[in-house]
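Is this the right way to post structure tokens for a design question? Let me know if I should format differently. Anyway, here goes:
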């Protein structure tokens, strides 16, 4: 479990995150949504330690991450898988070496053991015999799956994803969503996803946290969203005509 307790983040005089408290449970797919500039990306970066918390605590299974020394934080980071927006593969490395990168950094496995682990992870994301391809030879969906394979290489307890569907077509986005949800349950990970993709929210959102102007405006499940009376949430999720039809259809079935 990852807990956020009374977290505030300020940059100079500007408060970007204001007294946010929430918890992300193991084995569940938790999505964080909000408009650009709402603070959701800063929240994710605070959780992983890329942004310094001004006040409050970030806790990983009871350990106060933001108050640990460098060595203590490094131990927790070994247990975090990260999927970056745009995949963030190393262009100079082939697929095998990209997936092997965290194994090189954090383990003392033999090269053959690393290769076996890489092949296992690539097989799990339905990518085989692509080890020697460069990122430039991959489609957008394949790059995302390689990024997921790299993220699970160390058997992480925690999986943090920043816009994993960015730049993907709707069909490929569904494949990536389902893969992340399957892996969350299979590995019993604590998974947090920052997203603008409402299809993701309505399909795999075991828990949804809506950030509005730096604070948590609403929390619930994907089913709760359809019956929410929160005006800001409605404006964000159901702004389009299609969104309005989805909500109207859901309410008519109550």
């Amino acid at each position: 479990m990852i807990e956020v307790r009374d977290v505030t983040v300020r940059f100079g005089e500007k408060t970007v995150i204001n007294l946010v408290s929430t918890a992300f449970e193991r084995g569940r797919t938790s999505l964080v949504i909000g408009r650009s500039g709402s603070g959701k990306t800063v929240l994710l970066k605070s959780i992983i330690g890329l942004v310094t918390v001004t006040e409050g605590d970030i806790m990983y299974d009871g350990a106060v991450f933001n108050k640990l020394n460098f060595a203590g934080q490094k131990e927790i980071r070994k247990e975090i898988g990260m999927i970056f927006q745009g995949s963030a593969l190393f262009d100079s490395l082939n697929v095998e070496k990209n997936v092997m990168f965290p194994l090189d950094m954090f383990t003392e496995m033999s090269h053959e053991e690393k290769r076996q682990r890489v092949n296992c992870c690539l097989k799990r994301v339905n990518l085989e015999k692509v080890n020697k391809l460069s990122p430039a030879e991959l489609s957008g969906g394949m790059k995302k799956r390689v990024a997921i394979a790299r993220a699970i290489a160390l058997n992480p307890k925690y999986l943090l994803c920043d816009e994993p569907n960015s730049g993907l077509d709707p069909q490929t986005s569904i494949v990536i969503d389902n893969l992340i949800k399957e892996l969350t349950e299979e590995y019993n990970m604590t998974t947090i996803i920052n997203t603008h993709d409402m299809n993701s929210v309505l399909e795999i959102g075991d828990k949804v946290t809506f950030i509005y102007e730096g604070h948590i405006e609403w929390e619930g499940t994907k089913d709760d969203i359809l019956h929410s009376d929160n005006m800001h949430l409605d404006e964000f999720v159901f702004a389009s005509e299609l969104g309005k039809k989805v909500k109207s259809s859901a309410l008519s079935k109550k």
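Format looks fine. Someone answered above. Worth noting: Residues 1-79+194-254 form a domain with the Rossmann fold fold (CATH 3.40.50.300). Residues 170-187 form the longest helix (18 residues).
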